[in-house]
Amino acid sequence: MRNSILGRRRARKADRIAPDAQTRKYLLPRRELARSAMARIVIPVFFDYASSLCYIAWRIMRQLEPQLGFETLWKGVPIALRDARAKPGRALSETERQKVLMVAAETGIPVTPPRHWIDSNAALEGSELARDAGAFAAYHDAVFRAAFEQGIDIAEPSALDAIARAAGMDPDEFRAGLESRRMAERIEAHRAEADQFAALGYPTFILGEYPLIGIQPIETMRQMIARFIRLRQEEPQA
After folding, report:
1. pLDDT tens-digit profile of 209-225?
2. Residues 6+ apart with CB under 8 A from 68
């Protein structure tokens, strides 16, 4: 009798630890669904290193990414292609300066607008070289810091060489890539893609099929991105 009772107890314990084949058939899809729902959402952002507002957006997205668990896909498009007033070397007007300062005050992200529009072409092409080299994040962060925190002219090849080297890239390969304009075609592809989304402002966030142009205070951005992520995760899984 005692052995019979022990046997039934072991059987019940085994049932709790190892589900039968019929139960496992239903558990597996749920696990797959959970992994799918927890996959990182990717949010493309069209930007330019010449834009003070894109610097503000970078600062905000760096805070929100680890908090909300999404990934920002930065895609460079020279602002001068959109707006002739952003021609590299042209002095910022007082209206342009005040716009930047107003957004900085609204978002709580301090930034001093550059006196002249920045020539960002080489820096943008360099970001794609960095992406292929697995060093995009380090390069991207360093370029924004150099341009808007350290007052470094990111149009200077020596400045970009130093940034690439610090990001772990081969400086000779980096310089050769810039000189050959190897990534010019990819930057043009970004511009064409931005046109399809009517992404004409800086920055432009692509939330699904819809462009969100401009940058908002961090709490507003948090609410909009969190809602977008929630809706994406609630979509029926294929």
Report:
1. 899 999 999 999 999 99
2. 222, 225, 226, 229
Question: Beta-strand (E) ranges in 26-180?
Answer: 41-47, 70-76
CB 72, CB 43: distance < 8 Å: yes
Q: Residue 211's closest CA among 42, 57, 54, 44?
A: 44
> What pTM did the predictor assign?
0.82
Q: How far apart are CA 41 and CA 121, in angstroms?
A: 28
Whole-number percent of the chain with pLDDT over 90: 74
As its CATH architecture, domain 42-234 has 3-Layer(aba) Sandwich (3.40)
Kindly tell me if the per-residue pLDDT of 102 is higher than 70: yes
Quick count: other Cβ atoms within 10 Å of Cβ 143?
Answer: 26
Domain spans of the chain?
A: 42-234
Q: How far is CA 168 from the centre of its chain?
A: 20
Q: Which two tokens stand for residue 107?
A: 């978002």
Residues in the chain: 238
Give 74's strand partners: 45
Q: What is the predicted pLDDT for the residue at 235?
A: 80
| H helix or E strand, kind and range, residue 164 | helix 157-166
